[in-house]
Amino acid sequence: MRARLAGPLLLAPGLVAIVLFATALGALFRLSVLEFVPGSLRTGGVTAANFHAVLSAQYLRAIGDTALLSAATTILTLLASYPVAYALARARSGRVRSLLLGLTLAPFFTGAIVRTYAWMLVLGSSLVTWPVRLLFEPSGVLVGLVHFSMPTMILILAAALAHVDPALERAAASLGARPARVFARVTLPLSMPGVVSGSLIVFAWTFSAFATPELLGGGRVKMIANVVKDLALDSFNWPGSAAFAIVALAVTLALVAGLGRVLTPRAS
Amino acid sequence: MTAARATGVAVVVLLLAFLTVPSLVVIVVSFNPTAIMAVPPHGLSLRWYENALTYPQFQRAAVNSLIVTAAATLLALPIGTAAALALVRHRVAARAVWAAALLSPVVVPGVAAGLGFLILAAGLGLLASRGVLIAVHAILVLPFVIRSVSVSVANLDPALERAAASLGARPSRVFRRVTLPLLRPGLAAAALFAVIVSVNEFVVSLFVSTRVTEILPVAMFTYVVNYTDPTMAALSTLFIAATFVAVFAAERWLGLGGVFGLEGHARGGPSR
Asked: Can you name the CATH fold of A56-256?
């Protein structure tokens, strides 16, 4: 009897957290279908107007920009992270491995504001003449987003690569495959679970990125999260803002659901 | 060293430089005596540090950060540990649903969670309350606590607890003298994660804080938007230094490789 009750009792405090979180998201959904009364935080009747507004030209552009920047960030992050992840997974010396892990994790844990501010200094520096203008441009936002996503991607790829047995690579090499062929036919295919899950996670995170486009975009580059903040905290249009937040939420949840399908082992 | 290997090493070094250089620039700028960078710099100065440490809004935000992070961590640790024990050890109906619900704050976009909490807090008339920030932070760090503690719970041999019980220890004594000490590495990692996530949490906090209750990242954001002098560089340098110490200490004493699932074939360890 006691043992059977232990599970539910231990989960009870967690349930409080779940209920609070669900209530907050429920409030978000409720407001998204209520009419915005300008100049007031009170709302009118039920309406679909907030979601219609999401589809207006100005806001569709923000959604398009968000999708493009997220796709570009995912591809560049993947290319930039793979070599580091490989080095991390295959490092033989414990010291090299600790150094790589530390250098990867330090930015991971440094926080969005500090990291974005650092890029404002680098991109806006009067000392370096960049070939193209970067600060307050989409290209500069892209640089910041890639930098922001790299630690996560490196960790996911390194975890996948750590489980690829190097003996398989040696076997392929001993049978005469050149390094490029070993990589293309053995290493890369075996690390695909990491590639796919890392890409999905980075795309989802970037899709709702806020601090990087807010600061590096200087108000000229708007991603979905920036529109949510502008509408909620500057225009006090909570219902309109809620509709946008739900767009970001829906895309993220769809990607996470896709991730679950990718990671669930197929019955064999 | 072959040419291919040398190229590989060079590429990795360049990519790591891309990851690291912005932080180095911040550190250099923070010691610059003038607001405008010059090469070579006209000497060293701590004036921006003095500015950062004496700016009233940063001082207030630092106190708020301390209170919110400490309270949220102390709340999330027992809640998360209990949940991890239940999920790993006990028969729980719909275990996958519980796990997904408890870990969901990680995947929900910050602006969606932030706006939701803002609407909820406004509805309850709690907008100016620091308690809202504490509750929100506890919910946001809970997934990290559960993940870290679950690893330790899974590695805990139930035979040790049975042995203690068979020698006459009551359940509460078994928990205090056997279970908790064996969970210590997981609890330490969980506390570290919770503190780091909470101290750096920005987007959700931006939505649910006021000028009076705001924590450091929010105050820093407001400062960057309004001022361009290197005061932010000084404060950022302090953040970077603290993070570096925490990460390398954690790698040294806790072994972060295990936490991130990097123990595989490469080091001959057993793959999980």
From this structure: MetI-like fold (1.10.3720)
